[in-house]
Amino acid sequence: MENKFEIIIPTLFGMEAFVSREVRRLGYETTSVEDGRVVFMGDYEAVCRANLWIRTGERVLIKLAEFNALSFEELFEEVYSIRWQDWLPADAAFPVKGYSLKSQLTSVPSCQSIIKKAAAKKMWSAYGIEHLPENGSLYQIQFSILKDRVTIMLDTSGEPLHKRGYRRLSNAAPLRETIAAAMITMSYWKFEQPFLDPFCGSGTIPIEAAMFKRNIAPGINRRFAAEEFKAIPTALWSKARAEARDSIYNVPLEIYASDLDPECVELSRANAKNAGVDEFISISKADARKVFIDKPDGTIICNPPYGERMGEIKECERLYRDIGKSFNKMNNWAKYILVPNENFEKLFGMKADKKRKLYNGMLKCNVYQYFSKRR
Question: How far is CA 200 from CA 109, 180, 184, 270, in A?
Fold first, then answer.
């Protein structure tokens, strides 16, 4: 097997540029940036480092093959041609999952079954056994079929990358960690200035801000599926984790977080402690309509409530008007606000300097960006 292979990082739509930048920062060159995925060449060390360091991507996948298939027979033969014995040991547990869009092979369960059978048959032949116990480590096989183009991949992450491990509990509508990291990245917040999230919920935004500015690898406190892969030496994971520990910056931070709900305040405190950044975040109960920090410069990043039913939406619209008045008292502060409401600028009382589309789950949102007057 070659020393290098293609590594795919799936992303939420709108996040591709952030992931591409992170890959380059790790020292790798992207070979492809497409809707919902970033691809680069790497080795097993790159697998370890990407899992530990990628903040805005969802998983780290090894690409095993890519081909066209218009029939189940073609799918079987192409999957059978993969050298599965190079990737999976004889006792591997290897479930299959994936999706098919705009393709001849429309039945996802049938595709799963055929990929499983083809991989199993190849392993029977390679290992000289007729029964695969599947009682060993998990090797999750993933596939995507888009316009008859099939990609077969091996998931090295296990739990998705947005599950950092610090948020053991959350509020009713938690913001995904990867989106919070993207908002912090686009803000160019300077650690010398104060930072505020007045709708902290379970604390995701301020925690991600503290981890980002201290250069704490987002995956440093969690485990990954590939740590059980026999082909990846334990020493590579140890080396990658040592690099992550040695890369942490000792910088002073002034981060404020607040929420009107006292349960969210306690939840944020617990999650910040789990993340190891509680000493850098001041968390309190406060009404965002009345929030004010008497500092000349700073950055507000927040994800205010959206509302689902008509009465809730109207209440949120009143909230957007009110925070427009309170936030704008901090005139020189930069503001980055994630909401799906297309009339937000009118409600907030100010036209954004820039808008960026991001998907919070399946919900299309905009990050309304108001730059500091001193930028």
Answer: 40, 11, 14, 13
Return the amino acid letter for 298: G
Q: Across the strands, what pairs with 142?
A: 97, 153
61 CB-contact burial (10 Å; exposed 0-12 / middle 13-18 / buried 19+): buried
Kindly report the pTM of this predicted structure: 0.94
User: What is the residue-level pLDDT of the chain in tens, covering all 375 positions?
Assistant: 458 999 999 999 999 999 999 999 999 999 999 999 999 999 999 999 999 999 999 999 999 999 999 999 999 999 999 999 999 999 999 999 999 999 999 999 999 999 999 999 999 999 999 899 999 999 999 999 999 999 999 999 999 999 999 987 776 668 999 999 999 999 999 999 999 999 999 999 999 999 999 999 999 999 999 999 999 999 999 999 999 999 999 999 999 999 999 999 999 999 999 999 999 999 999 999 999 999 999 999 999 999 877 678 999 999 999 999 999 999 899 999 999 999 999 999 999 999 999 998 888 999 999 999 765
SS3 label, residue 203: coil
Compute the distance between CA of residue 204 and CA of residue 93 in angstroms, rounded to an integer: 34
Q: Which residues, at least 6 apart from 125, have a Cβ–Cβ distance to it below 8 Å?
A: none
